[in-house]
Fold this protein.
Amino acid sequence: MIAPAERDAVLAVLADYGWLIDEGRFDEWLDLFTEDCVYKVVPRENLALGLPGCLMLCENKDMLRDRVTALTEANKYNIHVPRHVIGLPRITRVAADLLAVEAAYTVFQSDQDGEARLFSVGSYLDRVQLAGGVPRLKEKLVIVDSFAIPSLLATPL
Amino acid sequence: MIAPAERDAVLAVLADYGWLIDEGRFDEWLDLFTEDCVYKVVPRENLALGLPGCLMLCENKDMLRDRVTALTEANKYNIHVPRHVIGLPRITRVAADLLAVEAAYTVFQSDQDGEARLFSVGSYLDRVQLAGGVPRLKEKLVIVDSFAIPSLLATPL
Amino acid sequence: MIAPAERDAVLAVLADYGWLIDEGRFDEWLDLFTEDCVYKVVPRENLALGLPGCLMLCENKDMLRDRVTALTEANKYNIHVPRHVIGLPRITRVAADLLAVEAAYTVFQSDQDGEARLFSVGSYLDRVQLAGGVPRLKEKLVIVDSFAIPSLLATPL
């Protein structure tokens, strides 16, 4: 059983995850992860075939910090605004303070002329740690259905 | 009034509904329905005009099982991956252990080249039964706004 | 801390907001707002540059009632069906009975031939009042990322 407060914690961390990327608030976004986090972006095709190739791979929070630093500096020229719409999550318990979370996601991008398009579709396979009352992402696996990325993959999905 | 545990049950059954279709886990998907379930896919136009035509009609769980068997066997050649994004549900009580649920849905499809497109948009009008602590779909009415289906309607919406 | 009942109230008012627009039930939609409500639709570009221009501006509920009257009368010729899909909300407390809510939104439109397209993408910055146990929108700021509106902006976003 998942308690209402646990479900709320999961809904909150997913909402924060998408919102902080879309608003470019990457320092707060980093705070959502544990120090020993794993963050991977994998094309669905590779997952299905058991191939190890990733679009992005960070095996701890320092690698994610590096990524954000690079992004923040390169981002000056990023002319697209992302917008995450994350679906209702499936939640199952892995351990007393660890939940497995599965959710569909979509990312839309708008350009400087205010034209929007679908940018990415796929699913999140997450591990959310609840220790200490603050939910944290211990693992974030982004499975990209739309792996034919139509432009630069700069910001995280 | 809808209790937090009841809302959580509705969020969970909606999330399961979409996820299990997208992952092709149709046996578990069938478990979400009651034996006396009704499952209908109706173009919005027909509903508005009071026309009885459906894109899919199952009047009990055995009809749904047949459908899944056909689908599982034909599915070998299905080359699209669906992805459901279901919006926040409106919940109202019909009886002590029966809730009416209304939600917008979108289904995106990705092909084998990793190209994604919007496949279907509409709404769900559901009846969720709470008896025995396990939420089950007693009725699922899918109203399709985008009834000009751009390809085969194989998997359920 | 946000209590489960408070989070449920926010989820419910967001779901009602989108659903009642999509179903054209504007009288019930008006009931979601406080008398002293503010409703604004702002292109993201204007917000970023500090420009005051709005696509829609209602500074109290009477202005919103006027808007709905105009819409209901003009709507006879509206041949598109909107469908809101609203993402998981971020919720923070502003005062004992006032919550700040941030959420991504998408609106899809289907035409009379059943063809659907992405119509609008952006975010909601809301203030939800909880006084009296019934959640009400005291402020709704719609930030439109896709400000190149591809056709008439008749119905609210």
In short: The mean pLDDT of chain B is 92.
